[in-house]
Amino acid sequence: MKTISNRLLANCHYIFFFIFFIIGLLIYKDYGFNIDETFQRRSGFYWLNYLSNFFGLDKISLISSQKLNTSINFTEPWSDVYGIIFDVPVAIIEIIFSINEPLKIYEMRHFLTFIYFFVGIIFFYKILINRFDSKFLSLFGCLMLIITPRIFGDSFQNNKDIVFLAFFIISIFYGFKVFESYNLKNIIYFGVFSSIATSTRLFGLVFPASFLLIYLFMTLSNKKDLKLFKKISFYFLVYIFFLILHWPYLWSSPINNFLNFLNSVGNYGPGNVLFNGIFYNPKLVPYSYLSTWIVISTPILNLLMFFCGFLILSKFYLNKLLNVDVRKKTYDFWENINEKKDFYILILFVILFFAGSFFQVKHYNSWRMFYFLNFFIIYFSIFFINFSKSKINKKKQKYLSLILIAFIFLNIIKLFQYHPYQSIYFNQFTSKKFIEGFEVDYTGLSGIEFLRYVVNDNSNNKKIKIGINSWYPLWRMAELLPEKDRKRLIFLSNKNKENADYIYSNRIYDVNIYLDDKYNLSRNFEKQKQLMIDGALVYEIYKRKGL
Q: Measured between alpha carbons, how far is 240 from 194 in angstroms, rounded to an integer?
């Protein structure tokens, strides 16, 4: 019996990830359609067509061209620019397995998004066990990240920010490996994955920037290490080489196209952003935008432990900085490899948080583009737990464990409560009145639920006229319905919505009822249904009277 128990403990991480995978396999079809998914799919076939033409793969070129021509044509400034690390492989899978039904296509994309997240969590476990040498703490950290509601919800349908989170984590893992040994293998892996992270989201630029900063601190310890300088330089060569290699957009003119990309991303964004009850230009939101969103939509336990861990680490390295003896030729800024890793994580977080808060970055859709900051929230939390264990007795450790378990169960309950809308989660700090001042279903996940509702509610074969009482291209997800249902739907312009049978209301950006009366409803409509989760209004359905 004891042997079986020991084996279970030794293999608990395999059991953990097996259960996690099975859960994902069971529920990935539950999630709605993300507004960006059509663009992402088109981007995949655009680059597959480009690559197949470049390498002379005529058959693939023909198929990808057909797929491209039948997709929605986007004209956004960033269209057909992003890296290809997710979209092209998914496009290839769609072709290989002859997946033609729209619903099956997007369900497949949701499953693969989860797979990327799953791999990212495995590497997160490797990071934590590398740093803290504890299976319990490492698995607990993974569990904290997985059951963070907004991360959990996005892990099935957000194939930009979640994919970036995965490669962000993998890049940090190989950054840790580089610190342990500056051999060519580790440097190449770090260069490859940090370049992939950069082409997925430009925030990946933090890796070469922070790596250079770490090197500058290392010169305090050894100012004349020419070999180290060569190895650091080699990283930058690897990073730039692979960035260009896997990002075809850069092939024709790497520098100019990269600068154009920077400019185009900065110019994109919605017309208005709803934040704390006020509509802002995306570039003119208050400096508190990012921090406010983190505070109101992150589980309380995660927040508390994060702040504690961050303060402890910050105080530790601040004291080291203040005690630097400038008279010495060298100075040991860290005493061991773990301190070096912690300092690297601290540097990464400070750079990214302050860049996201105070630089002219366009903010919209809550803080989804900064969801990778959850890595730091959990990392600092685990650091705090590990630190606390060494400072308190066994009795207090038991109390601490009970508190942690209680909060974990509370988070799991929230996952069930919000399912499948975990992406709109707000924590216990927020009231219903407060939530009304923020965007909720900003990617329109509820749109397909609305369409299915009106089709079932109107069971005859008559045409159904649909109006939209907000800004949202609802017609995009009509293709996910069976053809017989899809043909029944008639989408009206906002000006003609008074002639609709049903009206969908989804409070996101550009819905400023105080400045624009185009979203007002006549008395000919009555509320048929609404979805309210824990004080957050997801959507409303209005039906024409007498229908």
A: 10
Digit-coded pLDDT (tens) for 332-380: 678 889 999 999 999 999 999 999 988 867 788 899 999 999 999 999 9
Query: What is the model's pLDDT at position 516?
Result: 55
- Angstrom CA distances, 532 to 74, 425, 453, stand at 33, 12, 16
CA-CA distance, 508 to 441, in Å (whole number)? 7
Alpha-carbon span 229 to 215, nearest angstrom:
8
Cα angle 35, 36, 37 (rounded to 5 degrees) comes to 95
Give the count of beta carbons closer than 10 Å to the beta carbon of residue 517: 7
Residue spans of alpha helices (H) in 11-148? 12-27, 37-54, 58-69, 87-96, 102-132, 135-146
Using a 10 angstrom Cβ sphere, with 0-12 exposed, 13-18 middle and 19 or more buried, the burial of residue 259 is exposed
Mean pLDDT in residue range 499-508: 84
pTM: 0.94
Residue labelled with tokens 């793969």: 57
Residue 256 in tokens: 């100019």
- Cα–Cα distance measured from residue 175 to residue 207, given in angstroms and rounded to the nearest whole number: 9
**Dist CA 306 CA 300 (whole Å):** 10
Q: How far is the C-alpha of 14 from the C-alpha of 531, rounded, in Å?
A: 38
Residue keyed to tokens 């005493």: 335
Say how many Å lie between the first and final Cα of the chain, rounded.
67
CB 451 within 8 A of CB 547: no
Three-point CA angle 431, 436, 442, nearest 5°: 120
Residues sharing a CB contact under 8 Å with residue 214, sequence separation 6 or more, in sequence order:
340, 343, 344, 347
Instruction: Name the packing angle between helices 161-180 and 337-358 (round to 10°).
Output: 150
Distance CA 370, CA 407 (A): 24
Mutual angle of helices 12-27 and 135-146, in 10-degree steps:
10
**CA nearest neighbour of 89 among 113, 59, 61:** 113
Backbone angles phi, psi at 429, to 5 degrees: -70, -20
Place of tokens 């006229």: 465
Token digits of residue 434 = 């407060």
Half-sphere exposure (Cβ direction) of 193: Cα atoms closer than 13 Å: 23
Q: How many residues does the chain have?
A: 547
Share of the chain above pLDDT 90, in %: 52
The residue with greater pLDDT, 142 or 443, is 142
CB 465 within 8 A of CB 490: yes
Nearest to 472 by CA among 498, 440, 501, 426: 440
What is the phi/psi pair of residue 431, to 5°? Answer: -100, 165
Query: How sure is the predictor about 76, in pLDDT bands with cuts at 50, 70 and 90?
Result: very low
* Three-state SS annotation for 225-288: CHHHHHHHHHHHHHHHHHHHHCCHHHCCCHHHHHHHHHHHHHHCCCCCEEECCEEECCCCCCCC
Give the residue among 225, 182, 43, 162 at the shortest CA–CA distance from 443: 162
